[in-house]
Amino acid sequence: MPEQDILPTTEPACKKKGAPIITVEHASKTFPNGVAALQDVNVTVCKSEVVVIIGPSGSGKSTLLRCLNGLEEIDSGHITIDDIRLNGNKKNRDIIRQEVGMVFQSFNLFPHLTVLDNVNLAQKLVRKRDDKEATDTSMDLLNKVGLGDRAASYPSQLSGGQQQRVAIARALAMHPKVMLFDEATSALDPEMIGEVLEVMRALAKDGMTMVLVTHEMGFAREVGDRIIFMEHGQVIESATAEAFFENPGEERTRAFLSQIL
Amino acid sequence: MPEQDILPTTEPACKKKGAPIITVEHASKTFPNGVAALQDVNVTVCKSEVVVIIGPSGSGKSTLLRCLNGLEEIDSGHITIDDIRLNGNKKNRDIIRQEVGMVFQSFNLFPHLTVLDNVNLAQKLVRKRDDKEATDTSMDLLNKVGLGDRAASYPSQLSGGQQQRVAIARALAMHPKVMLFDEATSALDPEMIGEVLEVMRALAKDGMTMVLVTHEMGFAREVGDRIIFMEHGQVIESATAEAFFENPGEERTRAFLSQIL
Amino acid sequence: MLHTKKPRITPLDIGIILVIAAALAAFGWRVDTQLDYEWKWTALGQYFLLHDPDQGWIPGLLTQGLLTTIKLSLWTMLFATIIGVVMGLARTSRSLFNRLIGQAYVGLVRNIPPLVLIFIFYFFISDQIFTAMGIDTMVRNAPPWVQEFLAITAAPVNQFTGFLSALVTLAIYEGAYITEHVRAGVQAVSVQQYEAAYALGLSPWHRMRHVIFPQAMTHIMPPLTGQFISTIKDSAIVSVISIQELTFQGMELMAATYMTFEIWIVITILYLILTVSCSVLSRYAERWFRRHEV
Amino acid sequence: GKLGRQLTEESTLTTILKRGTLRVGMDTFVPWAMKDKTGKFIGFEIDVARRLAEDMGVDIEFVPTSWDGIIPALLAGKFDLLIGGMGIRADRAVKVNFSIPYYSTGMSIVANSKKIPGATKLEDFNKEDIVISARKGTTAAKAAKRFMPNAKLRLFNKEPQAVQELLNGRAHAFISMAPLPAQEAIKHKDKLYLPMTGNFTNEPNGIAMRKGDVDMLNFVNSWIRATKAEGWILDRQKYWFTTLDWQSQVQ
Amino acid sequence: MPASSPAIFRPLQRHEQILDIVKLLLLGAGVFWLLMLGEEHLNYQWQWYLVPRYIFTWKHGVFTPGPLLEGLFVTFQITGLSLVLSMLFGLTAAIFGLSQSYVARLVSRCYVELIRNTPLLIQILFIYFVIAPVFDIGAFTSAVLALSLFEGAYASEIFRGGIESIHKGQWEAAYSLGLSTTDTYRKIILPQAIKRILPPLTGVLVSLVKDSSLASTIAVYELTQQGQLVIADTFLTFEIWFLIAIMYLAVTISLSWAAAALERKMNSEN
Ligand SMILES: Nc1ncnc2c1ncn2[C@@H]1O[C@H](COP(=O)(O)OP(=O)(O)OP(=O)(O)O)[C@@H](O)[C@H]1O
Ligand SMILES: Nc1ncnc2c1ncn2[C@@H]1O[C@H](COP(=O)(O)OP(=O)(O)OP(=O)(O)O)[C@@H](O)[C@H]1O
Ligand SMILES: [Mg+2]
Ligand SMILES: [Mg+2]
């Protein structure tokens, strides 16, 4: 468990919600091409909390998210998820990947598998569930996202919004402790965005811990418990949604919001 | 010279402007796949007139334009440009192609040639100008479109708006009697559109005969002497810009405008 | 595969190193115990450069073979490119006649083993054509400076027709592959480029010459240089019709000296030197053709 | 008469004299024909061909040709005469004309002492588990088939490959025209031995040329008779086949 | 009119097509006539009637394959075995080349470059005369080994291209679900890559059939070797060479057709 006193003052001490489940301490990452995508980032996410990361393009939002489930490795600092350190140890990384679900902007469904198989696959291979158990879980989730009747379809036969909902179901089927969403709606038409946001809203209500990157300020405000504003690989501001939008602490944040809203 | 009385009533008799330079009479075209892209189209364009063609997607606007410089052939009807018939006769077609300049939506610059060579090429090969003469003409035009200093660049080193302006200079270098623009700005960013429209505006002022397809109603209204509204391969309405936007004659036109504006 | 980590030693590295080490050890042990072979590396020098009391230093057998291989490859590539461009354009032309000819050519040549092609060409087709054209007499009666020139650029008079047969066979064989590269390259140029050229009033020839072909070249260059490397390799096969190129000279040498292993190894290295330097050169050529891309 | 003149006119003999060069087809075959260090051809057949050209008063030119294509190459006119240790055989004579034999030789066999020690007669090799190597398209291959029909035959494009096969212990024996087997046995005393001294076949070798050319045939036959009588051919045979003096030219 | 030709070309009219086909037939006739002319000059005695017995004999209702047919069968054997092996080599080299292990990438690179930069003829002879005696490998095995190493290098580039063409997001999605690298290859990447890999791989198969003719140089009794032996026995040089060419053509062209059909089927499935 990370020591609370090393966290910067902008980070809450998880009073309202549960204990911290994600802690990022002094995380830095520089890409081989010299871009410093993360610079001394400190973030704490509490259980059942919904954290929204916003910021201009290239500010390191995706990189932070990708570091959280080990798709990228940080150069220095520490990331701890559910008391497990992501420290280059392969075993730890594999456990964390199972605990953390990720939904990508471009869906990344497996095009050669049916919707059901997309959701079943990792359950069988990683969680070692048998076919019946996996299918039960999958159908349950697909029904929840409103796609029970499309289980036998292939991804290419679905609309973007439907594909994104399958991607969410696929991640949920692993019963992750944390869900990460990277601009999960920005590849969608306006009317399809609605469907996906609906699912995410329901998840938030159910108490799922979520970290999401979005450009939808309206949605951020609605579901976000806390908003983190990033720029140039640094966390500029971290505040409750209300405080953030009503009364941003930083000059830069204000400038950004005035542009967007 | 076409007889005036065979033209439909919606076509003007070129009173204000010069004599008719383009006449399209009963032109029809059906693609091998059965799509009737043009159905009995009649259009007259007078010298120095700027005609804007608008209409929903797939209505045959591009096809009409492409027929005007022989990129496609009509199945029946007649097209006469500057007193020359486009009747499948190769010699006529070659003359007409030199008289008619075309600017494409996707620029279609030659990527392996510098900006200057792009503008020079056809002058030297078709108009048989020597290098000095061609370069003088080219530099003159490039300066006019504000790209005199980029003559030695390759197209890939230019922004979209700059590329489109080179394409215009390239077409103008042949001293065409008529310029055709097929959605010349729709592949561009908003700020780049401005640059290109500026050049087209200047051309219109100089008295160049132009036929353009655009979705920019504001621009259509500003530079268009006459607006032609097409749908399903047919000309639905043809009227002065003022009359067209203020008081469209047809129900269908009104519906279209209400959607767009 | 995602490269998420900095390079570090993985179990796979260790496994492979072990396997390679084991294989080498086994090979060494077997060579030592099983194979009765006397290595004579030092004797190889004279086959590269030889001191002759009368003529001074002269190229040895292998050097001669290497030079022939280079000359043959260069000529082959020149003619194969001409054939390939003509046939490639035929394959992309509007005329069905041209396309059918291109198709028949490519289909026929690419589906017969080169070994078989070479025999058929050598004994049957090229021989008839060359005899009919009287090339042999022509070369023999040519003035000395022409013969000298041919000897330097191609082959000495007495081997000229053989060289020409090999050249024609190889050019036709490689030409079929270049045809396909050219076709793909031309077809990779977008239709819009044709339309732009057309709208400017360029004639079909000018369109091809100034707009389409230069762009197609960017696409054609990489496979074309690859084909050049193949040509060097494929030229080995004409050794079966006794063209005195590198492989042939090597085999002759083995016949005389029985230094089988040394000579195979040296020949392999010589081919490697040729092809690798070729691919280095080709990289520069490709870059030159791509200079308009930023 | 007229016809006779035409025939003479069209004879290869006339062509050679007009051209001033005799073109001779052969294939590398130690010590019949091979390259020395400088790339010049040397060997028994080479000497014969050189002498023939000299006597005709023309230049000589060698056209090395792969053995399995050598008869078609002759027919196709790639060279005028085939002087390459070709055994006179009826089936070959269907396609080409042979001169009278200018020398005779025969097949002999050399065996690997580890693989099959102590063999003394051909029957020892006529077994199913015996592998015999030889060169493709030669009379050696024919002889192996005739005398050892039960043995397995492995045929290569060139002799060295067939010999290497024997040295590598993958063939029990190697058959070729004498004296190659004997010379190999001397070179690799520790590994190879001669199961029997002398040859087990006797083959007359002739010079081959295209059919229908009486003048040429006549000329070559006369030349052979004359040179043989001189003793020159025998002398050359001795030098190339019984001594190893020529080795220094090669290595 | 193939779809690949620029749209600017007007499709051919029916009569133009017929005219072109007639022109082609005329050309074919012309070439044939030239060949006949050359043949006359050659003074070669054609004996096609002797040829059939070398393909097969049919006596008293008993079918006996001749040497050429037997050779063709061996060619098939070499091709089939080499195909399986070369897929194995190719896939291994491709996965090595894409792996994170430095040594694996180096090995894969060296293998592919070495093989692609030296003549196959040299490789076959080298393996048979240098490597094979050391490990006591036979001629047939050597041929199969050389051919599969050779085609494997080309196959590996095809595999690599196919695998790399799979969008990076597929790897990321699989990893973020906790799948291992092996599972990701097995269940996600290869099933998708195979569709892009299969068509160019059929090219490898055609090459294998053709290149197997080089096995004749190390005394493997496949089609070319059998042909050469028949020629050595009978001097039916031209007849046999033409026949062999036709036999190879028949095999390779039917393979190409099958490949094209396969490709069409795959495209229509998507
Ligand atoms: N694989 C990579 N290699 C090199 N640089 C990278 C890589 N991935 C991202 N970057 C760089 O790192 C910086 C941060 O990228 P990141 O994708 O995290 O931004 P972002 O905040 O998600 O932006 P966006 O809102 O556009 O998605 C950018 O400057 C980007 O160019
Ligand atoms: N080469 C072609 N072959 C077959 N059909 C075509 C072809 N080109 C155009 N069409 C069809 O002809 C109709 C008219 O097309 P056209 O491109 O002229 O429309 P448009 O008015 O320019 O539309 P947009 O505003 O989308 O550019 C469409 O239905 C189109 O699908
Ligand atoms: Mg991002
Ligand atoms: Mg259009």
TrEMBL record, chains A, B:
It holds the Pfam family ABC_tran. Keywords: ATP-binding, Nucleotide-binding, Transport. SMART domains: AAA (SM00382). The lineage of its organism: Bacteria, Pseudomonadati, Thermodesulfobacteriota, Desulfovibrionia, Desulfovibrionales. It comes from the Bacteria. GO terms for molecular function: ABC-type amino acid transporter activity; ATP binding; ATP hydrolysis activity. This is Polar amino acid transport system ATP-binding protein. Belongs to the ABC transporter superfamily. Coiled coil: none annotated. Residues 22-257 form the ABC transporter domain.
TrEMBL record, chain C:
It comes from the Bacteria. It is found in: Cell inner membrane; Cell membrane. Keywords: Amino-acid transport, Cell membrane, Membrane, Transmembrane, Transmembrane helix, Transport. The keyword Cytoplasm does not apply. Residues 66-282 form the ABC transmembrane type-1 domain. Part of the binding-protein-dependent transport system for glutamine; probably responsible for the translocation of the substrate across the membrane. Belongs to the binding-protein-dependent transport system permease family. HisMQ subfamily. This is Amino acid ABC transporter membrane protein 2, PAAT family. It comes from Desulfobaculum bizertense DSM 18034.
Automatic annotation (TrEMBL), chain E:
InterPro entries: AA_ABC_transptr_permease_3TM (IPR010065), ArtM/GltK/GlnP/TcyL/YhdX-like (IPR043429), MetI-like (IPR000515), MetI-like_sf (IPR035906). GO terms for molecular function: transmembrane transporter activity. GO terms for cellular component: ATP-binding cassette (ABC) transporter complex. One of its GO terms (biological process) is amino acid transport. It is a multi-pass membrane protein. Keywords: Amino-acid transport, Cell membrane, Membrane, Transmembrane, Transmembrane helix, Transport. It comes from the Bacteria. Residues 72-259 form the ABC transmembrane type-1 domain. SUPFAM superfamilies: MetI-like (SSF161098). Belongs to the binding-protein-dependent transport system permease family. HisMQ subfamily. Part of the binding-protein-dependent transport system for glutamine; probably responsible for the translocation of the substrate across the membrane. PANTHER family: GLUTAMINE TRANSPORT SYSTEM PERMEASE PROTEIN GLNP, MEMBRANE COMPONENT OF AMINO ACID ABC TRANSPORTER. This is Putative glutamine transport system permease protein GlnP.
